[in-house]
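Worked example

This section walks through a single chain of length 118. The input is the sequence exactly as stored; nothing has been trimmed or padded.
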Amino acid sequence: MPEPQDKELQRFENPSPDKDYLIEIKIPEFTCLCPVTGQPDFGEIEINYIPSDVIVETKSLKMYLASYRNEKTFNEAAVNSMLEDLVALLKPERIEVKGTFAQRGGIQLTVTASHPQN
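Given that input, the structure is written out below as tokens.
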């Protein structure tokens, strides 16, 4: 399991800052813990953004997301926290973080957060 220092997101210079292009990242095996039951929540995270001057380094993103595995958090809070952290790091033109969580008790939950807000 990642140590707390592994939760730090890294970035690198955009090799094509003069172009608008879309970066799409899919993480099909996201997990966190339900703060009510302590049971694991499973989901898929999708991050789509138009970069400005920097791009997220994907290994650091992988470790950052893995750090949620033992964290008790509501799915809505996790997605919004990811958005806030990525906006602070990247200052992108646009970004959307979408979490699609596995069905539990007959309910399937999808949370989408974006910047700037629609």
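What to look for: The chain has two helices and six strands.
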